[in-house]
Every structure is written in structure tokens, then in C-alpha cells.
Design brief:
1 helix; 4-stranded mixed β-sheet
Length: 136
Amino acid sequence: MPPLFKMDLDNLYENIRNQKKEIENQGAIKMSGTKNGIEHIPVEIVLSEPSIGPSRTTSVTGCGLGFDWDAGKFLLFPEENLVTENYNKADSVIKKRDNICYCSNCTTIISEHDKYCRHCGKKLVKEEKKSAHISK
């Protein structure tokens, strides 16, 4: 479960210390990645994309203090872009089921008046009504 607050450097340090203690107290239980010591556990960022199986993540390739406009921040540098390309480049369709509208790309509940999905950022277009043609 993601934290419910914005994390600062002290929170990050405390969290790492607590996780380290938890791993060291596992005893005979070996967690994946710890067989060569906890310093070999990869640091990953969870992406907000759907996934079957393990969470979709990207590795952290570096970190450091920001400068200039980012002064006063501790920055993590991801291996991959955190804003990934959507499944396709076409607009997302506003789908409606039981008076609830949702984005056809990410299935987030939206308003039928939204222009863009607030979760995946796709431009929203209204679903075309299928008209019944009566042939003579």
C-alpha cells in the first residue's frame, strides 16, 4: 500500500532502516534478492500501469540532491520514463455502463463531460451510438 503522505528524506531513511531490520529478523526465511546480503536488493519504482503478476516497476539508476529550480529536493532517477506511452495512440472512448462512465483505456471512472482522463491522460471522445438501420 502506498504511503498516504508525501515522503521526505527523513521518512525515506526511517523506512529503509525499518525494512532492513525486518529483513534481518527474517531468520531462516530468505526473501528473494537477499541471498547475497540486503545491499543487493534492487531499488524499484512502482508504475501506475495494470499488471498481471508482479507489479510493473522500473529500476532506480541514481539519486541525488537537486539544484537550481529543484534545490531542496532529493531526486530519484528512473531507468525508464514514468510516463509511458498508452496502449495505443488513438483517443480513449467514454464508455457508459449502469449510468457510470469510464475511460476505455484504463477503466478509471470519469464524468461524461471530461475532456481528458485524469488517470491516464488520454483525450476522451464520446462513444458513437450504433444506429439501427431498417432495410426496406
